[in-house]
Amino acid sequence: MAIFGPSANLLTKAVLLAGTGLFLILLLMVWVVPVMGYNSQERYAPQQPVPFSHKHHVSGLGLDCRYCHDKVEVSSNAGMPPTETCMTCHSQVWTRADVLAPVRQSLAQGVNLRWTSVYVLPDYVFFDHSIHIAKGVGCTDCHGPIGDMALTWKATTLYMSWCLDCHRNPAPHLRPRDQVFNPHWVPGPNTPSGAELMKAYDIHPERLTDCGTCHR
Amino acid sequence: MTNPARDYWRSLEELADSPDFAAVVEREVPRFRDVLDKFDRRQFLTLMAASMALAGLSGCGPEPNPQQRLPYVEAPPGVVPGRQRYYATAHTRDGYAEGVLLAHEMARPIKVEGNPDHPASLGAAGAITQASILSLYNPRRAQTVVGPGQISSWEGFVAALYRRREQLLKKRGEGLRLLTGTITSPSLGAQIAALQTAFPAMRWHQWEPLHRDNELAADQMAYGRPVARVFDLAAADVIFAVDSDLISAAPGWLAYARQFAARRRPDETGGKMSRVYAIESTPTLIGAKADHRLPMRPVEVAASVRFLAGAVGAGPSQWTEIQSPHRDWLKEAAADLTANKGHALVHAGREQSIEIHLLVELINAALGAHGNTVRLIEPPVVSPTLHLQSLSELVGDMQAGKVDTLLILDTNPAYSAPADIPFAAALKRVPFSVSLSLFADESALLATWQVPAKHEYEAWGDARAFDGTATIQQPQVRPLYGGHAPSEVLAVLQGNTQPDDLTLVRQFWQRQQGAGSAAEGNPQSLAGDAGGGQTGPQSSGSSQPALAAAEAFEAFWHEALRRGVVANTAAPPLTLTPKAGLAEGLRPLPLGGEAAIDLLFRPDEGLWDGRHAENPWLLELARTFTRLTWDNAALIAPATAKKHGVKTGDVVAIATRYGATKAPVFVLPGQAPDTATLWLGWGRQAGALAEGVGFDAYRLRGAAEPWLARATRFEKTGETYRLATTQGHDRVAGRDLIREFTLDRFNNDPEYVKQKSKDVSLYPGYIYPDRAWAMAIDLNSCIGCQACTIACQAENNVPTVGKDMVHFGRIMHWLRIDRYYSGSPDDPDVAFEPMPCMHCENAPCEVVCPVHATVHDHEGLNLMVYNRCVGTRFCSNNCPYKVRRFNFYDFAAATERPPESWNPDVSVRGRGVMEKCTYCIQRIKVKEIEAERDGRKLRDGEVVTACQQSCPTQAIVFGDRNDSHSHVARRKATPLDYVLLDDLNTRPRTSYAAIVHNPNPAIGKEQS
Fold first, then answer.
1. CB A123 to CB B83 under 8 A?
2. A60-67: which pairs have CB atoms within 8 A and are 24 or more residues apart?
């Protein structure tokens, strides 16, 4: 009596096939899943207490970024606007809008608004807004088309490789200082080249990749 | 070791590792093995499968981001998230203010720095002051008002005290007693004076266990009045220290240490140095820095001071006719002092007898020190009192039933009273007692009312420095755990049921300004200014002058708060001469007791009188000479140890006339023979962390012998006790680590140190074209105070590890002070050497790291990348300086410390990660970014490391080596500069200035 019947062939093939499939799936999980935008929360807009629209405020009304994020030029932290900043206008306009109820409530009761961070860095990364602004990195370089976002979503992966892309080769990301806050900036014919700006801003890429630049 | 990751907040049992405690731990945290026993295989697999499935579920979809941001509703002016701001206030030690600046991040204090404008700080801050930030956040602080037998509230307490007040008013205050520590606060002084007027029969007692009674009694004898002294060490060419705490604990020590060190750097002062003599029974910092030091028993110290007095003409000349092996030594020292009249200074520590203090005063007068190196001033203390007498009177009255209301403010006599003054027992006889304290301490537990106190950084108040300069203390944060200020409790007694410390302090200063007498800064006149809780005189009219006065006061108030100093409040100088014939009137010295052991009571370097016993940083701070952590011990000389047949760790039974205790022995080189030094402040009976840690030396201390007691028993018990010292950790012995030589040699052959260098390599060095960060540490200036160690710990989120881990050599301090002895163990020379990371250019740690977790940057910093580290510990193995620290357990997470108290600019390291000194890279980067933002070069001195900032003697200098004008480059250019282990060709960035001694050529080395 044969040990392996005819069905054994099929079984072997099936096992081999399933094994290969499983291996490929594992490979996918290990290599691809971590870099999927799905995992990095790229293009993800978390729910906020107020559906704040940068599109309306920046592109529509033409507010400067620094009207709300007023510490961006002097501190590591760009600063989230206090409730009173919202209320400078919203005590006059849209005073009865339902969506703004949390803002009015915050001011009336002295309770902080609780925004959910869109950009979150690990605790061992120390990012500084002010130096990027000073060196001519525009807001949209990291925050994407922020001026056109109806809801704020994460425009990048925030992976270290993404940081390093620019820290290794900053030139393509630089703009004249007066265009840093322009959400729709495109280089014009008279725009100084990246190399020129590097020189003007005294940027030394070799030092930008020192670990201590970001990790302390 | 059953229980890893000793958390410094846990109890004594854990530290002692007792079997009882182990049993408790077993029950509360079952080990995995115990868990497994309870399951069968099938159950286990089911659970595992279920948890796997659930883990899969949680991976679905982008996780809701847990990080929330809460912007202000109304932004407070000036607060910039991500940037530090500094606010001035003062920290007090024994009542004396040391000005501090607290660094705030998003309006919460995270770090204490010295206030450069404050005369008692000059920008430096000692270890205790640095550690005060941890006490502020300590979650084990008292938080609840406890009334008689029940939990109450502040309102309940106020009501009870107010009712009490009504009764007391009828009796004119009969039975009302106040017990405080030393008070320099002008406003509290005024408040107490006002109370005294309202309650004429009230009495105010003072108890500070580390009192200065002997000094005060000597001053009473010499001048008939209390005085205070301000020393000028910059003018002192010869200093003679008698068991002196001049540069370690005396009020103003930070300033004195700065002046002292400035005279000890021959490379900066043109080859000139001061000369220091020290005679002492137990090692002190100034003794360690002395050019000539003699350890001697207290009775010999007394005889030596008499000799000195006789020799310089301050006492009868027959005093010089003593039989002593040190006679020649003393004679030469006296001659040196006499030769430097007007530039000489003698100082005795607080623990010395009345006679010694008196003689020292007379010697200083004879040496023309008054007006030159010593200035007499009006005492900054409100109503200087003999504390022992004050306390014993109080306790006598308590026992006699004469006290029915006792307010204990910020002092803990139930623990710290002398053993023969039964305060704790007497307290039970007081029907209404209140203890206002930071922790539920021994006195609080016995009092009928426990009221949590505000930490100094939470309260409005004021305090004077050693020279009388007043500081208005402003709260740095709202009271974290409730709590109230002493002024508020006193205000209730004054009839104010809604007291508020701001109003009380502000109104006091308003009156001062209004009266225009603040400029005089006379504590007596301030204390005499009665009235509390009422409105100032300005409020009556609304006329123009009143308005101008109000504006002027506003300006004064803001300026005083901003600077941390009230201008022109230094105490006025006194011109006094000691009475004549005092020395002649002294009784002959009693003959020394042979064989007996003298017990010396000394404050603990960290816990002080016990008030910092809940502070883990200070518990784990390795003591300067013993390197002992988490314990105190009886410190005895090697010869004494031999005589009694004991060694370090043996437990001895010690008894005096007042009490008995058991204590482990620690054999300390340089201790005087037949003496045992006992640190006060340990062996607490109440407290979360400190309870029972160490032994309580107060139990041996009697009122008649507060500093020096004769042991009636000192016997080996046969028990042993495990002491955790860092002394044996990281031994680098036998190598050329300390270089020291004499001033003569320095002046004749300045290149001596350089010649010993072996800096040779065939390979060219690395080139750092831009900046090259470097540190220079001056060993001549380093006095071993360890302010830098705690400053580093606070700045860099360095965790504490607990006694067991220290025992295993796992202490985490990034910056340690190595203490080296040389010479005979009976009287060795001591050298201190701060050891941060050397930031070697050829770093041995880097080449062995398999994951590149430690690498160099372009400015020469040896970086530690925590997120890359996998914990092989190869780097630590390969580090010749042993400055790398490994997180064997999750030390940081195991600490019971509010998250907001950590420095947000530094990563908190997790388990399995190596860490080490970074040259405060976070401070470098902040300044670098600031400079680049402004488009300028970094200025020298802009980047200040935490250790450098705290150092009272400016021993540590940090900066850019490539800038030849920088301070660090200048220090490195001196002929004294050398690097450690240069034969290894590590090319360290941290270098040291060799020690130079200035011995008296007339005194042979064999004698000193």
1. no
2. A64/A181, A65/A139, A65/A181, A65/A183, A66/A181
Q: Using CA atoms of B309, B314, B320, B322 in order, give the dihedral in degrees to the nearest 10.
A: -50
DSSP A72-96: TTTSSS--PPPHHHHHHHHTTSSTT
Question: What is the amino acid identity at position B356?
Answer: I
Question: Which residues 6+ apart lie within 8 Å of A88 measured at CB?
Answer: none
Residue B947: other Cβ atoms inside 10 A? 27
Say yes or no to pLDDT of B539 above 50.
Answer: no
**pLDDT tens, position by position, B150-189:** 899 999 999 999 999 999 999 898 999 999 999 999 999 9
Model ipTM value: 0.88
Question: Are the C-beta atoms of residues B198 and B170 closer than 8 Å to each other?
Answer: no
Cα–Cα distance measured from residue A43 to residue B120, given in angstroms and rounded to the nearest whole number: 57
Residue B8 has pLDDT above 60, yes or no: no
Q: How far apart are CA B63 and CA A116, in angstroms?
A: 12
Distance between CA B882 and CA B986 in Å, rounded?
Answer: 13
d(C-alpha B878, C-alpha B892), whole Å: 25
Model confidence over B95-142: pLDDT tens digits? 999 999 999 988 889 999 999 999 999 999 999 999 999 999 998 899
CA distance B834 to B781: 11
Q: Which backbone phi and psi does B11 adopt, to 5 degrees?
A: -90, 180
Is the CB of residue A74 less than 8 Å away from at least one CB of chain B?
yes
Range B291-310 burial, b when 16+ CB lie within 10 A, else e? bbbbbbbbbbbbbbbbbbbb
DSSP label at residue B572: P
Chain B residues with CB-CB distance to A126 below 8 A: 905, 922, 925
Examine the pLDDT at B207 and tell me if it is beyond 90: yes
Cβ atoms of B282 and B675 within 8 Å: the answer is yes
> What one-character DSSP code corresponds to residue B762?
S
Instruction: Count Cβ atoms below 10 Å from residue B43 Cβ, excluding itself.
Output: 10
pLDDT in tens, B880-936: 888 999 999 899 888 888 888 899 999 999 999 999 999 999 999 999 999 999 989
The count of other CB atoms within 10 Å of the CB of residue B955 is 27
* Measured distance CA(B100)–CA(B117) in Å, rounded: 9
Tell which residue, B692, B572, B702, has the closest CA to residue B630.
B692
Q: Is A108 on the interface with B (CB under 8 A)?
A: no
Count of helix runs (H) and strand runs (E) in chain B = 32, 40
In A, minimum Cα distance to B925 occurs at: A213
Per-residue burial over A34-52, b = 16 or more CB atoms within 10 Å of its CB, e = otherwise: eeeeeebbbeeebeebeeb
Q: How far apart are CA B136 and CA B435, in angstroms?
A: 19
B948 token code pair = 């450098």
User: Which of A66, A202, A211 should be substituted to probe chain B, the one whose Cβ sees the most B Cβ atoms within 10 Å?
Assistant: A211
Report the b/e string of B413-433 with b at 16+ CB within 10 A.
bbbbbbbbbebbebbeebebb
Please answer yes or no on whether B866 and A76 come within 8 Å at the CB atom: no
| Strand B449-452, strand B432-437: pairing | parallel
Q: Residue B100: enclosing H or E segment and its boundaries?
A: strand B96-105
pLDDT tens, B722-756? 888 876 555 555 677 888 888 888 888 877 777 77
Convert the pLDDT of each residue in A16-43 to its tens digit.
Answer: 999 999 999 998 888 887 777 777 788 8
Determine whether B879 is exposed, middle or buried from the number of CB atoms within 10 Å of its CB (0-12, 13-18, 19+).
buried
Whole-number Å distance between alpha carbons of B345 and B367 = 8
Contact flag A126-B905 (C-beta cutoff 8 Å): yes
Nearest alpha carbon to residue B579 among B357, B362, B368: B362
Judged by a CB distance cut-off of 8 A, whether residue A91 touches chain B is no
Cα(B1003)–Cα(B310) distance, rounded to whole angstroms? 20
